[in-house]
């Protein structure tokens, strides 16, 4: 038996012995001395922390879809595509329990609202369904809402604006589920110099998966001065609802390639 095989054999042997030890501890816990029970509890808590970290790391690599995935369907002639980090990789800050009027989850995604109650929670959630392409979802829970607007703003990277022309279409593809059907608007903002042009589209609440194309042909933009793009998802009457944005992707393609 080579060294590697011997090491695996010893690891499995030690694992069986450790498992047997904890099984015996569980069986005798009702009658064990309190001093021993206290030590076992401390050992178990320390072991649990290590095991939970191991499970989390293993799930991150083994659970589908894989973290960091940028795979999604794109139209013919796509010259730029992007899935925001929130739907692609784990964030350092996974959620907010009481979102302020301007609540930033990361450098790309910000929630805006004017409700004085701030009974709004946001959380990044791991996707585990077989049909999911995005590794993560964004869960938005709204309780009592007395404001006039609630919107999620996604800032597109600078590559989206580079060499952008009025012959381009910007496609946003979203998968949205909600406990109660709600009307959502998608507004693309194109900043060129000191001016900003906007294209507004309504998303059909009966369609959980929807792709909308923003045609730049009718916008009065100076192509040489396009600096920044961002998308606002505006949720109408969000009170007492849980909305999950299971995926959000963007791509850019020419009208001639349709």
Descriptive account of the structure:
This protein has 258 residues and is of the alpha+beta class. It folds into two domains: 3-62; 78-257, Galactose-binding domain-like (Jelly Rolls, Sandwich). The chain is built from two helices and 13 strands. The protein has helices at 3-28, 34-62, and strands at 78-82, 95-96, 102-104, 109-113, 120-126, 136-142, 150-155, 168-178, 184-192, 195-203, 209-215, 226-235, 241-254. The strands form two sheets. Strands 1, 2, 5, 6, 8, 11 and 13 form a seven-stranded antiparallel beta sheet that branches. The chain has a six-stranded antiparallel beta sheet with strand order 3-4-7-12-9-10, with no helix packed on it. Strand 3 and strand 4 (109-113) form a beta hairpin. The longest helix has 29 residues, at 34-62. It starts with a helix and ends with a strand. The model has no long low-confidence stretch (mean pLDDT 89).
